[in-house]
Amino acid sequence: MKYSFILALCAAVALLPACRNNNSTPAVAELKQEEPGGAAAVTATQALVLPDNDAEQAPSLPISQKIIKNAVLRFSTSDFEACKKRIADTVKKYGGYIASEKQENTNMQWRNEVAIKVPAAAFEQCVESLTGGASRVDEKSITSTDVTEEYVDLDARMKARLAVEQRYVQILQQAKNVKEILEVEAQLKSIREEIESAKGRLQYMDHHVAYSNISLEYYQTFANSDPQSPGFLQRSWLSFKDGWNGLLSFALGILSAWPLIVGIVFIFIFIKKRIGRWKSRRTPTNVNQ
């Protein structure tokens, strides 16, 4: 029985390279070759290998074409705030969302960078709507990446690994001691990590196929003046605040320098007293003369 279990474990290990190559038939054929204890080997293989006829008869479901769409847009606008609102309304209209946004304002230019996710079915319409109100379009780039082949290949690999996982589970049920259990669990852990990695990659591609990416940058340039330049009253108030803040800073500076000020006062008093004593000593001498 132990010998049969070991042969069964070897059979499952032999299936792994076959799964990675998307072809399990050679591995199954190798398992059925004559080996010492051939009867036991065939019995273990039959317990592990799923019927080939069922696999051949099961029709594979067609996978729709997987295309990831991306757009890069850059344009200028004459009304920054109105453009910002129009973009938000457009994205909402087509069922998308803003993934990230970065706005920078300077004296001469306001600029905003926006990363947009929009359903693939509305991608072209959304792009046209976003650039429709632009004063001047500086850049408009659209790319499409077909990932169908990669998706189908990865999906097939994951299904093959799932089949191997089930075989390892069957082997685990046949384990008779701790050593055999640990060996099978180690193989199960490895194969399940590969399955999770494949699932994560498939989910990533599904999301990027379902939602197209739009990298948008728009800006407004001001010729000579700062659009946020304050008026006379506001500048007067700012000047008053600056003067008051300057006075407070001066007072705080004096307070922070009080040890130095006290030292200077003591030195001044000391010198003044010394001079007064010196004068008082010289005055009687001058009178006697």
Automatic annotation (TrEMBL):
InterPro entries: DUF4349. Keywords: Membrane, Signal, Transmembrane, Transmembrane helix. Residues 65-268 form the DUF4349 domain. Pfam families: DUF4349 (PF14257). The chain crosses the membrane at residues 247-271. It comes from the Bacteria. Residues 1-29 form the signal peptide. The keyword Isomerase does not apply. This is DUF4349 domain-containing protein. It comes from Chitinophaga ginsengisegetis. The lineage of its organism: Bacteria, Pseudomonadati, Bacteroidota, Chitinophagia, Chitinophagales.
